[in-house]
Specification:
The complex is a heterotetramer, with one copy of chain A (609 residues), one copy of chain B (250 residues) and two copies of chain C (83 residues).
Chain A (H helix, E strand, L loop, with lengths): L2 H5 L6 H6 L14 H11 L5 H10 L2 H4 L4 H9 L3 H4 L2 E3 L6 E6 L2 E9 L1 H6 L1 H17 L4 E11 L5 H21 L3 E8 L8 E11 L14 E6 L34 H16 L5 E4 L4 H12 L3 E5 L12 H6 L5 E6 L4 H10 L4 E8 L4 E5 L2 E6 L1 H5 L15 H6 L15 H13 L7 H4 L10 E3 L6 E4 L7 E7 L2 H6 L1 H18 L3 E10 L6 H21 L3 E7 L3 E2 L2 E2 L3 E10 L23
Parallel strand pairs in A: 4-5, 9-12, 17-18
Antiparallel strand pairs in A: 1-2, 2-3, 3-6, 4-6, 7-10, 7-11, 8-10, 9-11, 12-13, 14-15, 15-16, 16-21, 17-21, 19-20
Helix pairs in contact in A: 6-21, 9-10, 9-11, 10-11, 20-21
Chain B lengths: L16 H4 L2 E6 L6 H10 L3 E6 L10 E4 L19 H11 L6 E4 L1 H8 L6 E3 L7 E9 L15 E8 L3 E3 L2 H9 L3 E5 L11 E5 L5 E4 L21 H11 L4
Parallel strand pairs in B: 1-2, 1-3, 3-4, 4-11
Antiparallel strand pairs in B: 5-8, 6-7, 6-9, 9-10, 10-11
Chain C lengths: L2 E8 L6 H9 L8 E14 L5 H15 L5 E9 L2
Antiparallel strand pairs in C: 1-2, 1-3
The chains are: A alpha+beta (609), B alpha/beta (250), C alpha+beta (83).
Adenosine-5'-diphosphate binds next to strand 4, strand 5 and helix 18 of chain A.
Chain lengths: 609, 250, 83, 83
């Protein structure tokens, strides 16, 4: 189709790469290290083409490959017993974990970060964070039913905090409300350590029948690969214009936006459209497009499948016709999905697209070659083993050590409510301390935020703010449902990463339990500074060790999560902030317990130590 | 600790074949969000919910229509602006204006669509505080003679859910005066105006009383445990009202 | 490619909440010269090829029927910009 | 009273969901002449008295710093309209 635009580039084909081994490639600008680039050359047995370089550079980034955390994250998979796994239908590794709710129902949930996009453009950064996590949930075959948003901002009186916070909250509301997903909880912490690195974590929950679970894999030779949803634009590839080296003519690449603008309406339509596809069993495999866009979707679908895949990149519908192949492969344009459809379902698939007025294009098909082949106007520009892109990225054993200052930090005790004051002793002092506490930005009412979120849509919200956990009914007949709570305490974790992470888990676990649910599964978002700093790496290693140990003790598995590193300004990292989400189950949500006193005269007990 | 569940199950209204015979259409546009809630509300009232799609060209013999809330077409351009041109909307407008006076209820985005379609006067602009606002909202029933309000007492206060960003009702003074004079203000906000709406107007009706639009959401207040204050079911009156109308009880 | 610009503003008698917020915020940033602000919409419609009278008429009609709501808004401008 | 008009559009490379929805809806109403639509903002700033160079400079600065979000938007026009 777009052979016209195809001609505009003088392609760096695989054939060309084979005969021009010495062409300089901008691997460093794309974030690859020398050893990583050397690995790419070794894997391919030749230099990568510009398009291949684009794919490896995004897929081997920290964000997509978990290269610094992988060795530690293994513990989540290792420290589990058979008993812990009994309700786990899909574990770590897929887009989101799936837990058995009973009666043929399953629930999937996951938490992710959208921290740095929010710093740059708070509204859109936070909004697209919701959009991204919701697509993860859809791609499991589920109907998304709720979202949550643990947030961390800088000091409440810093001038930039208002910009970030107002924008982020409006963006989360703007996107989530438009999707018809009740927001059932979150957190809000102000602390100057997050001034330059606010944390916007987004959690989504979805439900499905067991038979509807979908996995991201491309199987069955001859099945067709389709891209649907929004058109592909230059979003999120700001740095990739250096890939202009892949076109050897003089036409300057157009400006590439550094931020993405979300289109919640497009995503809402995409949700309904996907659910209709699932209902008709019209897709064999499906994958959302998030960071790393088509690079990620094609390589993951292909490497999780049993064969290979061949696609024609000029078939991708573009918003910006000047995009180069590498840019198309890297684009992070929102609101897109990729699916594998068997030939007999093509007509039915297209009918669903037409009904919802969703654009789509057929890109290629599943093969049995074991290779991922991407062509540009018939010329091969990518020819790789998809596993090497999606799964066999670099893994680092980064050095870590307990910081020298940790002892001093722990020895620095805090004595009173007002800094440097003594412990309150008189009733008046106690009262003043109490008032100071409840009025503090981190303890006060969160209404300003929660009033901007729709908690009623769907008609199944049994608990939301100000309760300790959000509770959603899944089945109207039986009252089957779930509870979710998220918690984290950066200051505790800074003082003691091992126990701090455990405290976060324990708090979320308690919040779910006190709502009346039985805790079942954990998802976590590990927000840390640079893994190249041994102090930070120690915090990360300790937090993961603590969390995985505590999961063993509590008997609930981690089913998925996300790691967000490099949250630091200069050499100053944020406090280590592992946000932990716990999911629990209700046989009947009618039995859920709201927090707060319900009636006069009830007795008050304090339980525990 | 009492053993009583704190919230009830999805208790259906007593089965009454006359009620079940009433077919209430619920329209879905791309971007509609509260259609499933509206369907549930219809079901809980005992009537039969009929799902309608914006691109349909027939009204499927429904006896009444609900245009539910949401962000049809993302609220892009203006809330309701694009939906108003849907094929089904032409049918709905004709049927509402016909002698049969099809009862039509527009909730939130549905209200916005009805004003864009000129079935109801005035329009909605951004809330005066410019933010999305979700809260439990007390309304006074000002007119209990419409197809959708006759189950309430005149002057009754009800609590349902308010949630919107473009909820500020505006119209010129002449229109507002006429609405007041003819008793077409159906609901007024109590306990503080949440969005700057002129004269605290939360909902209005047409002169015939068959078309009603309001910003707050009765369909989110029909089942104990899932509505305002964990117990509120004040929204059920809307659906009972239209059944009264259809069955000729009022 | 030529574009047709359509400008739509809220009718003068309607209070504009966004404009009001802006006029309140401007002085805080030192912009003290403005006594009122109104926020409206600007649409750019791209035409492939020449803008004929017929196309301009289409734009005018679209402006009145869809791009604006005559109950609250005025179309203040419809013009061709070439570039 | 003189007014200064400020026009702000999303940068061309940024997705405009509203424009996209509008261009999809126009043909359904028979408006088939337009291949793309972008929706932006038009601000009218009222000045009490004469529009001096200094006031125009204020408007330009306000346009860049407050009326537009330079990360995603461009100020495409700042001009005085008298009426
Ligand atoms: N960013 C947010 N988004 C949604 N809900 C939030 C957010 N922040 C706080 N909440 C909700 O507000 C309520 C009070 O929060 P918080 O004071 O953190 O509770 P607690 O201290 O009891 O854990 C909870 O229901 C929580 O889920």
């Amino acid at each position: 189709m777009s052979t016209e635009s195809a001609k505009k580039f003088n392609m760096d084909t695989v054939a060309n790469a084979a005969i021009t081994p010495d062409v300089e490639l901008p691997w460093a600008e794309l974030g690859l290290k020398q050893n990583e680039f050397d690995d790419v050359v070794k894997v391919l047995g030749r230099r990568p083409t510009a398009a291949e370089l684009a794919m490896y550079s995004v897929m081997w980034s920290e964000h997509c490959s978990y290269k610094s955390s992988k060795n530690h994250l293994r513990q989540f998979g290792e420290k589990v017993t058979e008993e812990m796994k009994k309700d786990m239908l899909v574990g770590i590794g897929e887009n989101a974990g799936v837990t058995n709710l009973g009666d043929g129902w399953a629930v999937t949930f996951k938490i992710e970060s959208h921290n740095s996009p929010t710093m740059i453009e708070p509204y859109q950064g936070a909004a697209t964070g919701i959009g991204g996590i919701v697509r993860d949930i859809i791609s499991m075959g589920a109907r998304p039913v709720a979202v949550m948003d643990p947030l961390r901002f800088g000091a409440i009186d810093h001038p930039d905090t208002a910009r970030v916070m107002h924008g982020a909250v409006a963006g989360i509301g703007g996107y989530g409300n438009s999707l018809g997903l009740p927001n059932i909880g979150g957190e809000m912490v102000f602390d100057s350590v997050y001034q330059g690195n606010p944390l916007v974590n987004a959690l989504a929950v979805g439900v499905m029948r067991h038979e509807d679970i979908r996995l991201a894999n491309a199987s069955g030779k001859g099945n067709k690969v389709v891209l649907f949803g929004a058109r592909t634009g230059g979003d999120g590839i700001g740095g990739a214009s250096i890939l202009s080296s892949e076109s050897f003519d003089n036409s300057k690449p157009s400006k590439r936006p550094a931020v993405q603008v979300g289109d919640p309406f497009a995503e809402k339509v995409l949700i309904e459209c996907c659910l209709e596809l699932f209902k008709g069993s019209l897709v064999e495999g499906i994958q959302d497009l998030g960071a790393a866009g088509i690079s990620c979707a094609t390589s993951e679908l292909a490497s999780n499948g049993d064969g290979g895949m061949e696609v024609e990149l000029t078939s991708v519908l573009l918003r910006d016709p000047t995009l180069t192949p590498g840019e198309i492969l890297m684009s992070e344009s929102q609101e897109r999905m990729m699916a594998v459809v068997s030939p007999e379902n093509i007509a039915a698939f297209e009918a669903v697209m037409e009904k919802w007025a969703v654009e789509y294009s057929w890109l290629g098909e599943v093969t049995d070659t074991g290779r991922l082949i991407i062509k540009w106007d018939g010329e091969v520009i990518v020819d790789v083993d998809p596993r090497t892109v999606a799964h066999d990225g670099p893994v680092y054993d980064r050095p870590y050590a307990r910081p020298e200052w940790q002892d001093a930090l722990q020895a620095d005790t805090f004595t009173g409510s007002v800094q440097d004051a003594a412990r309150p002793s008189t009733p008046e002092e106690l009262k003043a301390a109490m008032l100071e506490l409840v009025a503090s930005p981190n303890m006060c009412s969160k209404d300003w935020i929660t009033n901007q979120y729709d908690r009623y849509v769907g008609g199944n919200t049994a608990l939301a703010f100000p309760d300790d956990a959000g509770v959603i009914r899944v089945d109207e007949e039986t009252g089957l449902g779930f509870a979710v709570a998220t918690d984290a305490n950066g200051r505790y974790t800074f003082l003691d990463p091992y126990h701090g992470a455990q405290l976060a888990l324990a708090e979320a676990y308690r919040n779910v339990a006190t709502s009346g649910a039985v805790p079942m599964a954990v998802s976590d978002c590990l927000n840390f500074g640079s893994p190249e700093d041994p102090d930070v790496m120690w915090q990360l290693a300790e937090a993961i060790r603590g969390l995985s140990d505590a999961c063993m003790v509590l008997g609930i598995p981690v089913t998925g999560g996300n790691v967000s590193l490099y949250n630091q300004t200069g050499t100053t990292p944020i406090h280590p902030t592992p946000v932990v989400a716990v999911l629990g189950k209700f046989d009947d949500v009618a039995r859920r317990t709201p927090s707060g006193w319900a009636e006069d005269g009830q007795a008050i007990y304090l339980l525990g130590t | 600790m009492s053993e009583t569940p704190l919230i009830g199950g999805a208790t259906l209204a007593p089965v009454d074949s006359r009620l079940a015979g009433a077919r209430i259409g619920v329209v879905t546009f791309p971007g509609t969000l509260d259609d499933r809630d509206a369907v549930r509300a219809v079901r809980l009232s005992g009537a039969t919910a009929v799902e309608l799609w914006h691109a349909d060209t027939e009204l499927a013999d429904v006896d009444a229509v609900i245009i539910p809330g949401g962000f049809s077409y993302g609220d892009y351009l203006r809330a309701g602006a694009i939906s108003r041109f849907a094929p089904l909307m032409t049918k709905i407008v004709d049927a509402a204006n016909s002698d049969a006076k099809l009862p039509v209820l527009g909730i939130c985005n549905g209200f916005q669509i009805l004003t864009e379609a000129h079935l109801l006067p005035g329009s909605m602009i951004k809330n005066d505080h410019l933010k999305f606002l979700c809260r439990d909202q007390v309304l006074r029933v000002e007119n209990n003679t419409t197809a959708w309000t006759n189950a309430y007492a005149a002057g009754e206060d009800i609590t349902i859910v308010l949630k919107n960003q473009d909820g500020q009702y505006i119209a010129d003074e002449k229109t507002l005066d006429a609405l007041e004079a003819e008793g077409l203000v159906a609901f007024r906000y109590m306990g503080g105006n949440p969005n700057g709406s002129r004269r605290d107007i939360a909902g209005i009706s047409n002169a015939a009383g068959n078309v009603v639009g309001l910003m707050p959401h009765p369909e989110h207040a029909v089942e104990a445990g899932y509505g305002p204050g964990h117990t509120g079911t004040d929204g059920l009156g809307f659906f009972n009202s239209v059944l009264n109308t259809l069955l000729g009880d009022k | 490619m030529p574009r047709i610009v359509v400008d739509v503003m809220l009718k003068p008698e309607i209070l504009d909440p966004q404009g009001k917020a802006i006029v309140g915020a401007l002085p805080r940033l030192g912009f003290t010269a403005f006594s009122a602000v109104r926020q409206g919409k600007r649409f750019e419609l791209t035409v492939d090829g020449e803008v004929t009278e017929e196309i301009l008429a289409q734009a005018r009609e679209a402006a009145e029927t869809m791009l604006s709501n005559p109950v609250i808004e005025d179309v203040v401008n419809v013009e061709v910009v070439a570039d």
